[in-house]
Design brief:
Layout lengths: L3 H12 L6 H12 L6 H11 L8 H19 L10 H9 L1 H19 L19 H6 L4 H20 L2 E4 L22 E7 L7 E9 L6 E10 L11 E6 L2 E6 L5 E8 L7 E4 L5
Helix pairs in contact: 1-2, 2-3, 4-5, 4-6, 5-6
Length: 286
């Protein structure tokens, strides 16, 4: 009694013989089909061997034409005129090739699902950890009302504007101006090495000139001292003494007043803080 394995080997030997005999190949295939539980694929191959049909397409070409072929079939189902002869080669190949037939079935299912707008629904959903929401109501009760925050922002802006226009504010910025290593002549007569100097003249300040000089600390080059010198250039300005000068860098705020010569000096300022430092001079109003 022949087994499926022996029938399969017999069919393959006939199929790949040096000079295959079509009748023997078909007969061995029929014998194999008779013992297989699902012989649809073999039966389709058998039909291809038994029928003298000219298959003009390969699988790649056929599957590339399947979307257009499906569209034409849908148009025909709706009664629209179609180019039936244009896809005759596709029909012929599908009748002979089980692989392209399977591809056709899969693509038809995809097209049907897309047209039906079917969205797969999950049968179960993940459990989300919402513990971080506990106590949210109590926290929200402590939040400052929006209108109060707006009023606070407006007041902060007014305070900043008042402080800014009340005198002059000097900002060093991220890079120091290149200066010679030797000391410059300044109002105080200091001769230490000058790092940088900012001068705001009468063209910007009516009746005043403000000179800001930064010197290297003689004992520690990581520190510096900032000297602010005020010059009276207008006869109406009587004194440069007792004028508030504020230095800010990081979280540090230092307020000093000029001496009788119009000079104030801030000592032991970290050099690496100069990029964020600012000096505000509250010049008197006329």
């Amino acid at each position: 009694m022949s087994t499926p394995k022996s029938l399969l080997l017999n069919w393959l030997s006939e199929l790949f013989a040096e000079q295959p005999n079509t009748a023997r190949v078909v007969e061995s295939a029929r014998q194999l089909v008779g013992v297989l539980p699902d012989p649809a694929v073999i039966r389709q191959w058998l039909a291809a061997l038994d029928q003298p049909v000219d298959d003009q397409l390969d699988c790649d070409t056929c599957q590339a034409l399947l979307p257009e072929f499906l569209y034409e079939q849908q148009q025909a189902a709706q009664g629209a005129p179609v180019q039936d002869e244009h896809y005759a080669a596709v029909r012929t190949h599908l009748a002979l090739c089980p692989y392209c037939t399977a591809a056709y079935v899969q693509m038809a299912e995809w097209v049907a699902a897309s047209q039906a707008d079917t969205i797969p629904r999950a049968t179960t959903y993940p459990t989300f950890d919402l513990s971080f929401l506990e106590g949210a109501e109590e926290a929200n009760a402590e939040v400052t009302p929006f209108n109060v925050r707006v009023q606070q922002a407006i007041q902060a802006g007014r305070d900043w504007f008042t402080d800014t226009i009340d005198g002059v504010t000097l900002v060093f910025g991220p890079s120091l101006q290149a200066q010679p290593a030797s000391g410059w002549a300044v109002k105080s007569g200091a001769t230490e090495q000058l790092l940088t100097q900012i001068v705001v003249g009468e063209d910007a300040l009516d009746g005043w000139e403000v000179e800001c000089s930064v010197f290297v600390d003689a004992a520690d080059d990581r520190l510096c001292q900032i000297e602010i010198s005020l010059y009276r250039l207008h006869p109406a300005v009587t004194t440069a003494a007792d004028i508030p000068v504020t230095l800010r860098y990081g979280a540090t705020v230092i307020v000093m007043r000029t001496d009788e010569d119009g000079i104030v000096t801030f000592a032991a300022v970290p050099v690496d803080q100069l990029a964020e430092a600012s000096v505000q001079v509250a010049l008197p109003s006329e």
